[in-house]
Each structure stands twice: as C-alpha cells, then as structure tokens.
Amino acid sequence: KAKQLIDRLEAQHSLSIEEYEYLIENQSDELAAYAAEKAVALRKQVYGTDVYIRGLIEIGNICRNDCYYCGIRRSNPACDRYRLTEAQILDCAREGYTLGFRTFVMQGGEDSAFSVDVVCHLVRQIKAEFPDCAVTLSLGEFPREAYQAMFDAGADRYLLRHETADKAHYEKLHPAQMSFDNRMRCLRDLKDIGYQTGCGFMVGSPYQTAQTLAEDLKFIEEFRPEMCGIGPFIPQKDTPFRDFPAGTCEQTVYLLSLLRLIQPNLLLPATTALGTIRPDGRERGLQAGANVVMPNLSPLGVRKKYALYDGKLCTGEEAAQCIGCLSRRVASVGCRIVTARGDIIR
Ligand code: 5AD
Ligand code: FES
C-alpha cells in the first residue's frame, strides 16, 4: 500500500494528510529507497546532474527572539554575540564571487540594527557590484512594507522556515511572544510581493509527530514555495531543548524524497545540519533528491559564534576548502556543482 501511495505521489504530486501520515508512519529502508529512486529521476528530469551552491553569509547572531531550540536565542548568555560590518559582508561576497558563487544568502538573527534601511543599502551595494548574482535574505519576520522595500532594493529570494505547519506544535517550540499566524502572514506576503520564497522545518524537533509532519507536507504542497530547507533538529547545549534527541538522517532524507515527489522543481538543500549528524549526510541528501548545497562564506572569526546547534560543520575551514571538499562529495554521487544563480526551473 505504501508503495502505491509513492506511485500516486509521483504521478499526481498530491496526497491527503492521512496518506502523508501513513507514509511517514510506515517508513522503512525499502520504502525510502523506492521513494529516493523516483525522486532522483524527477530531479534529473528538471535539473539534470546540476547542484547549485549558495554562499551563506551569517551577518550577525544578535536576536530578539527566544526560540527554545536555537543557540542564538535572546536568553542564551553563553552566546558570544557579533554583527558583521557592511564592509565585512561585501568582502565575503567578493571572495564568494571569485570562488564561483552567484547567489549570496544573508542570514542572521532578528536584530533591529539590521533595519530595513540598512538591509536595503546592503542589497543595493551587492546587486550593483555583482549584477549577475541573486541575493537571498534570511533575516526573519518583518512587516509587509519592509519586505516590499527590500524587494524593491533588489533582493530576489527570501528564506523563512515555517518551522511547523501545526499551530499547537509551533507554540511548543516558541515562547508566547512569537506567533504562528504572523509567521504564515510573512510567508504569504513574501510570495505575494514576488520573492522566490523558501519555507522549511526541522526533522525530529521536540513534540513533532507523524501528524504534524503530514501537515508540513500538505502545507508545502499547497503553498508551492520555490525553496524548502529541511534538516535534522540538533540539540544545542545552552537551550531549553538541550536534552531532546536529535532528528535522524534516515527520516530527513526520506522526507527530502517525498518533497521532491510533491514538487519536482523544488530547490532542496542538503543542509549543513544533515552533514553534521552524519559525515556523509549531505551526500545521502543528494541521493534522496536534494539539489542545493549552502557552503559558509562567513569570516572564520565568527563561524563558531553562529551556533544554532552543537557540532556544526565547517566552522574551521576557509570557503575555498569547503568548495573543494563539497565538489568531491557532490561528484561522488554523480552530480556536479555549477556556477549559476540557480533559479527555479519552471
Ligand atoms: N537544530 C537544527 N536546526 C536548527 N535551527 C535552529 N536551531 C536549530 C537546531 N537546534 C534551524 C531553524 C531555523 C534555521 C535557520 O535553523 O529551522 O529556521
Ligand atoms: Fe566545508 Fe567539507 S564542506 S569542509
């Protein structure tokens, strides 16, 4: 029965919530291999063997929010805070450009110092210096007008993981000041404004169930994001969730395959978190249907400070080293890193 559901998902790109739940509850190595084979075939049809790279610039770890899972949450006094200057950020982009990056992702905590004006100025500078590059922002929740101003300044894409599509679950992962409804409002505004929009969630987050995951899949099916970031939850020692178990590589890659079947042209990263819980996690992600990797371009001196979770990969290597390492890893599974913006193919 489960294989028949996979066949139907492959053909129709849609299932009911109950059917998604069934697929999640009945995950096995055999079923995952079956889904992965179909997912990789679909990815090949759309993207061939190309894997897109995104240069991640972690612009600061100061955050007003207090998500229970996240190492840079406001109430973590052990977090050594930093904020990159505009000059530092531009230098990261310059180095990235030389290495072949044509997308820069500026990610950071929700920090009022990165105001709409500051962000817009940054975006304009990067777009002026590198007109052939895409700029992706990942700076959390803003009012619609702010997202509009950043888009008008030239930002192409925005990543804002929904974290979970289940409101009650969302409220177990975040303190009362944070609102599920506002998160969803942000995602709809971003899409409406015209951003290539990314949502996503952690796999194995505390209190997650087959039901909440099924809701995530249904949400993604209906929302039709351009990108979707998923990676295992990994406990961070200074957070309230320090004692919860990490998500698994097996479940993460299985969900990557299901997402590829739901939306064949989805831009799906094999995340650093996946590579962190398992040395060959990113390769396994690619073999399950992922087609994006996001190496770190942040200055070496701040890498360790952007500690969302424990044990993060590549906090000690130069961007050039990561590219070399990743090129080999990507080649080992029959794919190839390309120098391109890597927009979604319609
Ligand atoms: N483990 C895994 N992923 C995490 N994130 C935040 N904290 C953790 C953690 N402990 C993810 C969230 C966030 C993204 C930037 O990183 O999903 O949206
Ligand atoms: Fe950074 Fe392998 S990707 S060292």
From TrEMBL:
<feature type="binding site">
    <location>
        <position position="63"/>
    </location>
    <ligand>
        <name>[4Fe-4S] cluster</name>
    </ligand>
</feature>
<feature type="binding site">
    <location>
        <position position="183"/>
    </location>
    <ligand>
        <name>S-adenosyl-L-methionine</name>
    </ligand>
</feature>
<keyword id="KW-0408">Iron</keyword>
<protein>
    <submittedName>
        <fullName>[FeFe] hydrogenase H-cluster radical SAM maturase HydE</fullName>
    </submittedName>
</protein>
<dbReference type="InterPro" id="IPR007197">
    <property type="entry name" value="rSAM"/>
</dbReference>
<dbReference type="GO" id="GO:0051539">
    <property type="term" value="F:4 iron, 4 sulfur cluster binding"/>
</dbReference>
<dbReference type="Pfam" id="PF04055">
    <property type="entry name" value="Radical_SAM"/>
</dbReference>
<dbReference type="InterPro" id="IPR058240">
    <property type="entry name" value="rSAM_sf"/>
</dbReference>
<dbReference type="InterPro" id="IPR013785">
    <property type="entry name" value="Aldolase_TIM"/>
</dbReference>
<feature type="binding site">
    <location>
        <position position="163"/>
    </location>
    <ligand>
        <name>S-adenosyl-L-methionine</name>
    </ligand>
</feature>
<feature type="domain" description="Radical SAM core">
    <location>
        <begin position="49"/>
        <end position="271"/>
    </location>
</feature>
<keyword id="KW-0949">S-adenosyl-L-methionine</keyword>
<keyword id="KW-0479">Metal-binding</keyword>
<feature type="binding site">
    <location>
        <position position="70"/>
    </location>
    <ligand>
        <name>[4Fe-4S] cluster</name>
    </ligand>
</feature>
<feature type="coiled-coil region">
    <location>
        <begin position="1"/>
        <end position="37"/>
    </location>
</feature>
<keyword id="KW-0175">Coiled coil</keyword>
<feature type="binding site">
    <location>
        <position position="138"/>
    </location>
    <ligand>
        <name>(3R)-3-methyl-D-ornithine</name>
    </ligand>
</feature>
<dbReference type="InterPro" id="IPR006638">
    <property type="entry name" value="Elp3/MiaA/NifB-like_rSAM"/>
</dbReference>
<dbReference type="InterPro" id="IPR034422">
    <property type="entry name" value="HydE/PylB-like"/>
</dbReference>
<feature type="binding site">
    <location>
        <position position="67"/>
    </location>
    <ligand>
        <name>[4Fe-4S] cluster</name>
    </ligand>
</feature>
<keyword id="KW-0004">4Fe-4S</keyword>
<keyword id="KW-0411">Iron-sulfur</keyword>
<dbReference type="InterPro" id="IPR024021">
    <property type="entry name" value="FeFe-hyd_HydE_rSAM"/>
</dbReference>
<dbReference type="GO" id="GO:0016740">
    <property type="term" value="F:transferase activity"/>
</dbReference>
<dbReference type="GO" id="GO:0046872">
    <property type="term" value="F:metal ion binding"/>
</dbReference>
